[in-house]
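TA notes. Do not distribute before section.
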Amino acid sequence: MNKEFWRATGIRCLRTFLTTILGVWTGGQLITEVDWKFTLISAISATIYIFITCILAGLPEVEAASVLESHLDIDDDYDENDDEDDWSVKEEEEPEEGEE
């Protein structure tokens, strides 16, 4: 579990918390009519549930990134000013007359 995993888990927990609050607080209610105790307990419960799920099941977006990184052998020390053009296509030399 690396830094990217914890970052993605935190974002997912925050989104779950806020989505649950908005889901419990329906549009027909005034903000003064909301049962905030029930709303916060529901949001905290959903957040704890999603946190445990992230720990036990992992996050597909983080796993996909690490799989891609390992399969593509991504170089973190890439230098834009490097003179070598790794992406260029090498052209085949044409044989001179008499050579084949």
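Switch to the second chain here.
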Amino acid sequence: MFDIINLRISRGGIYLKVIAKPIQMIAWFNKDGSINPIRFKIDEEESKVIKIDRILKRDKEKLAGNVMEKFVCSSCIDGIEKIFEIKYDVTKYKWILFKY
């Protein structure tokens, strides 16, 4: 189903598998324009909705020339806390589950 996690702890770091899948996101925006993702839906064999419990880190970056808002988040999925990275393409208005 949705167990494509590939977490490895090596030299104190956590490595996630790059999957770069488009997702449907519910988020809210502050008056200053900052984004706060709430939950997202990913379509695999069946759809799954994942609520974002915590935003651990947020950054801006350029990926292939596109400005992206990057979020490292954690959620409890099937009783296990998992860390993942989502990105928002500010020019195309699209969300991507980048690493999981």
